[in-house]
Amino acid sequence: MPTFGATERTWAMKMQLLGELEPTKYNGRAKDARPNNGTAWRGWGKAITRFLAFLLSLAYTITGQCQVNLVLNGSFEERIGCTVSNTVSSLLYCQDWEGLHGSPDYFHQCASTAPWWSVPDNVFGTQLPSNTTDSAYAGISTFTTLFPGGQESLEGLLSEPLLAGVKYRVRMKAAIADSNNNYTSCCVGIAFSPPPFPPYTENLCDVELRIPADAIDLSVWYQLDTIYTAQGGEQEFYIGNFRPDDESYPVVIGDTSEWQTNIAYFFIDDVEIYEDTLTSIEEELPMIEDRIRVYPNPSTGMLVVDIKMAESNDQSMSLKVTDLSGKTVYQSSMQVGMNRMELTLAPSSYLYSINGASGATLQNGKLVIVQ
Length: 371
Fold this sequence. Notes:
Order of helices and strands: HHEEHEEEEEEEEEEEEEEHEEEEEEE
Strand order of the largest sheet: 3-8-14-11-12
Shape: globular
Largest sheet: 5 strands, antiparallel
């Protein structure tokens, strides 16, 4: 993982550097700070993308063959360039996404000359995308003690407006950063009406991912998976923590004496919104990730893998741990139930995968070993 100097790590410096790149503001967003590569045709590209997505959605609606994600570039993989400097606002290079408040970030493997914004190692730690074959994700601050209302928010686009009264399934994954953030907040959510500039006086989220203080895990992607009944006409949406500071319930996870990094920071990936035709919210099944727990994480070497999947045919499972180069450093068989093991690994960040007897990956994530 790259090293970052004390000055670079400060939240105030990040805000200052990115603020200098946004000379013209409208509703809190820069409108003339786009990079040269792709600027001329970005508007046309967005229109064409919307039109093609609409045709695809129409075709599948007629045939009934599958559900179409209405979110444009929901996995953040599509880009119009690549960040080449730590001092350049990286979100400018992500197609179909903008920052509504603050200076949200964009992380991509292509940023080899700008290690702040690279994947998996970047200024906020080490994190693979939710889908480990992907290359990118976004990031936002959801709380800070540096000043009131320091939340950042992303603005996304839908390929077509939502229909009044129709139920839509809303999915999004979020991971807590493991470096340069001394807090985590309880919540990150989605609003379908543009929130005002923070600080907020009430919770403005329409749907929300809530992480209890006793379930904080820096190694996993948490998933929001819920139902939203549309008011009608929604074609833009906003991702952030739209709660007042005193309702964000921050939890300390770092050294708060390093005041420059007294923020809560989330990586965001795999945003999906599509018409729900199969289930209602009462019929939702628990996710596999909810039935497999890996803890403590960070760990000093003692690890527990708690598997609650008695209904599964995969009674025999395996755990594999690799270093960041992909070399296997630990492997063990497991059974449904509580599995305790002792890992003799050097302090560092590792990747783990839990596989069923058939070889299918049931869960993967990051494992941090500390002294």
